[in-house]
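Case study.
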Amino acid sequence: MAEEPPIRRLALVGLGLIGSSVARGARQFGVAREIVAIDADPAVRERVSALGLADRVTGDAGEGVSEADLVLLCVPVGAAGAVAEAIRGRMKPGAVLSDVGSVKGSVVAAVTPHLSEGVVFVPGHPVAGTEYSGPDAGFSTLFSGRWCILTPPEDAPEVAVARVRALWEGLGAIVETMTPEHHDLVLAITSHVPHLIAYNIVGTAADLEEVTQSEVIKFSAGGFRDFTRIAASDPTMWRDVFLSNRDAVLEMLGRFNEDLSALARAIRWGDGEALHALFTRTRAIRRGIVAMGQETAEADFGRARPGPRGEG
Amino acid sequence: MAEEPPIRRLALVGLGLIGSSVARGARQFGVAREIVAIDADPAVRERVSALGLADRVTGDAGEGVSEADLVLLCVPVGAAGAVAEAIRGRMKPGAVLSDVGSVKGSVVAAVTPHLSEGVVFVPGHPVAGTEYSGPDAGFSTLFSGRWCILTPPEDAPEVAVARVRALWEGLGAIVETMTPEHHDLVLAITSHVPHLIAYNIVGTAADLEEVTQSEVIKFSAGGFRDFTRIAASDPTMWRDVFLSNRDAVLEMLGRFNEDLSALARAIRWGDGEALHALFTRTRAIRRGIVAMGQETAEADFGRARPGPRGEG
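After joint prediction, the assembly is written out as follows.
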């Protein structure tokens, strides 16, 4: 006999890449008995219905969350406060509210004032994603073997944290808890600044006069194309991330710039030893990432090789 | 009956990732009748022999190139001049010398003084590679569907250029010609600066006090891990690239920095419109790269997904 799912009714607000992946996974891995999909966009609701991702699809957030045991906000971080306000007083006592935002401090500040009596907010962030957006882009194994960070308030009841943990572990993720402040610092360097410099170099390359856009595209296999993947991520989500995690991003960007100035100086003055030393040290980090199952060891990410003699 | 290979004897100097991939491809696709492998490192020669990559393996460059119709230098760009000097006067008249270096101006300057009468130098650069190094890392389809840039001198005999072109087209590459100066500018933005900032951010992340190395590794799926691939490339090759293409790299890095300062300012002052506009524009470049067959359209580069619920 199948085990009873750890969550009875799961309400998802926002059915983009993340929300639709949670919906698919929650059903496939038996994490929730019933799934309610809430989205303000009629086109998204239509796709969610057509794909059969939820038991019920609605545009009315207040009504959609009313019987849920767990409500998960899967909207850009800049929209979390407005959704919390819209569902104010509509969640049932004992229910848990969570989210998937890439920034935690600002979301806690925006959501907390709108919490109803008896509802606990356990913020979360699954560190997973792809460069695609929307309900068609999701898939059930997006969170498999990836970390999910929870930043519960110190006085959060254990049962509330356990419910959110059960969701993510049911989806195959590894759960870790920390403070919102530390989360925002860690993600600034592992995710936000990498996205910023990827967006930036793609913009720089597009604006050159001496090198044509066609040349940038043709010769991108020399390294540039790796950056274009994350620079193709959802613009609204990422605008919100940078505006919401300003201080940590600028702090980490400052460090990046200091180091880059030192590298430029080594190049200008022909300091080959300094360059070689750094380039040797950075190899070890990748080995660590591969060893921890967060990256494939296959050459070139295991990319398919298109072209006349391609095998892919 | 099989067609006669376009090259009778091909001598490869340096059997790393690129040289060993040329050897494998030249044999598999019938590009050369005979392959001579030349490497100064006895351990590499042993692997090349064990893998059966060449008809003859030697450590004596002068002897190895003596009967070749085409000699291809597959060594770090900083070593090209020394190899050219070592084989001075040993290539036969009518033979063609080429290379695979990621920088062209400095290689032309280093090699040209050592050319023998009757030998033409047609510099080349296949824009392809992986993060792995050495003779075991090569594979025959590395150049399939990738561009190879040739920078022949204006007075180069057509027959000499045609021989080098035949090699690369035989390996599945698309050949384009340009000046060494333009090559170095194009590659500075499509390859050299991307590598530099990848090496840099991996170094910055490794040096933080507030965020542990273990955290950087665990949460790398947020974007950081994409950078670690190219930051795992061969340190000697890349040291030489930066020292050899200093001016173009510093020029492109200057533009990158100006743009990054503007982005940082937009973040500091909360200019969400400027951020959104850039993040939207950069998506188009990736679509162009995918459309031109230089990148997979699969989410996440089509990476295998390890982990408890992974399908990969």
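Observations recorded in class. Residues 307-312 of chain A have pLDDT under 50 and may be disordered. Chain A touches chain B through 120 residues (CB under 8 Å). We will return to this complex in the next lecture.
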